[in-house]
Design brief:
This protein has helices at about 40-55, 60-80, 80-90, 95-110, 115-120, 155-165, 180-190, 205-215, 225-240, 260-275, 295-305, 325-340, 375-380, 395-405, 420-430, 465-470, and strands spanning about 1-5, 5-10, 10-15, 20-25, 30-35, 120-130, 130-140, 140-145, 170-175, 200, 220-225, 245, 250-255, 285-290, 345-350, 365-370, 385-395, 410, 410-415, 435, 450-455, 455, 470-480. The chain has about 500 residues and is of the alpha/beta class. The termini are far apart.
Length: about 500
Amino acid sequence: MKIIEHFVEGKKYSGNSKRTSLIYNPATGESTAKVKLGSTEDLNKVVEAAQKAFLDWSNTPPLQRARVLFRFKELIEKNEDELVKIIVSEHGKVYEDARGSLTRGLEVVEYACGIPQMLKGEFTENVGKNVDSWSLRQPLGVCAGITPFNFPAMVPMWMFPMAIACGNTFILKPSEKDPSCSLRLAELFTDAGLPNGVFNVVNGDKEVVDAIISNKNISAVSFVGSTPVAKYIYENCAKNEKRVQALGGAKNHCVVMPDCDLDQAVNGLMGAAYGSAGERCMAQSVAVAVGNIGDQLVKNLKTKVENLKVGPGMDKNSEMGPLVTKEHLEKVKSYVDIGVQEGAELVVDGRELELQGYEKGYYMGGCLFDRVKKNMKIYKEEIFGPVLSVIRAKNYDEALSLVNDHEFGNGVSIFTRDGDVGRSFSSKAKIGMVGINIPIPVPMAFHSFGGWKRSLFGDQHMHGPEGVRFYTKLKTITSRWPDGLKSDPEFVMPTMK
């Protein structure tokens, strides 16, 4: 069986740990490889290598760093099909969805290519007589990223291109469920001319995560995953005096107003709820039907969900692929069971779906609930699967309250033709990312990604201008050159005269 190793200092690295974890093809349920799980000792050795590499890389002019990123971008484009197939084989999402996720990651690389402009500081001449002041941004040192299974290319690429462009070195701990894409990206980055030790990949589980948190020579940690783990990483990184951005869970609402283009709303919900089998932090898992539109909304959704084409990711006819693991499949099904027990109306039940020839694959059909209440577990918790809940609201104000009262604040959207409603919603929704007639409001790479409330722990969002600020520290210099005249000591707070 294939053994997947770490990638350290420009080459494969076995590490000292003997622990491994199986990798599965979700479409078939077959184990395809074993991934080596790193130890605390392995992680600490990689940090030493990254520290050594930082000395030269941080002093490399930003323009030269950008040229390496340009070559990396070209290699990603050249090897697109290979990378997409790796994603499909380990995560299960359909080919075009996987390609789209790779493209969104590539856009961050493209943005990072402009790092010389983004690192320019500010200068003020004569803040006082013959005194100048200027500011600049400098890299932090060794940074680390801990990423989830649902986007094995895109989410890591939200992190490491920005960190490396800013002059840091980086250690990535991808999900042990689908690590191969991250490792291939590391190889391509090395082929692009990135010096050894600047970008490293260490596979592992909680032991490596805790080693990242405790290692005093790691300056900053980026994380995407569930809220309990995000909170754990945030609290413990803070205790160890690290800079941290920890993106957690979500329960994204889609408010459907009575005046909306219903076909547009239904089609948007279908893609947002069932795309990638609902395994997205930006999945729309709650539809808020406002006023009298609920019955027609559910009727139209029912027809679409019943006809959802579920199949292996490499099948061009598939609209939704399998879930990532057997364990996760059973977890999602258990949430559907709970929803039925709680009294929600299960309009479409996809739990018993089986595909001929793929009986061992981790498939289920789309599930649709109606008459969901705000006290139900299926409404309060993130399911992370192909389950859409419809909750009814009497009016716009009630719908807005549902959105704002929920503990998560990642993304939200509204479908309406009313400009006043759209403007009010964009202002009053206590959510980090808002879409108006846009089902999945993921910002482009030159803006920044992140939620509010318990969807984000930390002060700064990912990529875009916020990414530059996160991976650098600000320095301000004030200078005066002596004119040969001696002055007496001053014992009061200096002021500019």
